[in-house]
From TrEMBL:
Motif Histidine triad motif: where in chain: 96-100
InterPro entries cross-referenced by the UniProt entry: Histidine_triad_HIT, HIT-like, HIT-like_sf
Protein source organism: Horticoccus luteus
Origin superkingdom: Bacteria
Protein name: Histidine triad nucleotide-binding protein
Gene3D superfamilies attached to this UniProt entry: HIT-like (3.30.428.10)
One annotated GO molecular function: catalytic activity
Amino acid sequence: MPTLFERIAAREIPAKIEYEDDLCFAIHDIQPQAPVHLLIIPKRVIARVGAATPADESVLGHLLVVAGQLAKKLSLTAGFRLVINHGPHACESVPHLHVHLLAGRQMTWPPG
């Protein structure tokens, strides 16, 4: 069964897409935790970061480069946070790796 993000990539489920290329796409989170909350998602399913293999290295790096490009495009000059959840204790809700880009407010430490 396709993941939620595969269905969004296939345009079966609508989403506000901020960015897309051959390897990934970025959408606005439907339950934002900050004024800017994007999800950067690889098109190829990697269940979670701990399941990534050396073959996924270039895709993982690409997600981070895209995050930086999006931060620049959105003028997030005061800063931003990137988050990758792994497993139920980290509040992973979709078994398809994705990077949260959060910005637009003061982040706290330690995170929640």
